[in-house]
């Protein structure tokens, strides 16, 4: 899943099909792999993004993507 960040980073997150409950990707405490606003909540377990794209010298965002609903296992 592409996630457009607030200021410093965009991220791509992954939720395996076998995981039936929601995942905590960190918003609003984290943006990508970095602290965004306030302290990270104690007792929360955040799922790190599989890709982080920092906003360096370009105006860009991660948008779009594909959804696979076939029967093959994707690791």
Describe this structure in words.
The structure is a single chain. This protein is an all-beta fold. The protein has one domain (1-75). 0% of the residues lie in helices and 19% in strands. It is built from no helices and 5 strands. The chain has strands at 2-3, 9-12, 30-31, 34-35, 51-54. The strands form 2 sheets. The protein has a 3-stranded antiparallel sheet, with no helix packed on it. Strands 3-4 form a two-stranded antiparallel ribbon. Strand 3 (30-31) and strand 4 (34-35) form a beta hairpin. The model has no long low-confidence stretch (mean pLDDT 81).
Instruction: Give helix % range.
Output: under 10%
Strand arrangement, largest sheet?
Answer: 1-2-5
Mean pLDDT: 81
Based on Cα principal axes, name the global outline: flat
**What's the end-to-end separation, in Å?**
15 Å
For the secondary structure, the number of strands is 5
Work out the radius of gyration: 14 Å
- Work out the strand percent: 15-25%
What pattern of helices and strands is seen along the backbone? EEEEE
What are the segments in which pLDDT stays under 50 over at least 5 consecutive residues?
Answer: none
- Class of secondary structure makeup: mainly beta
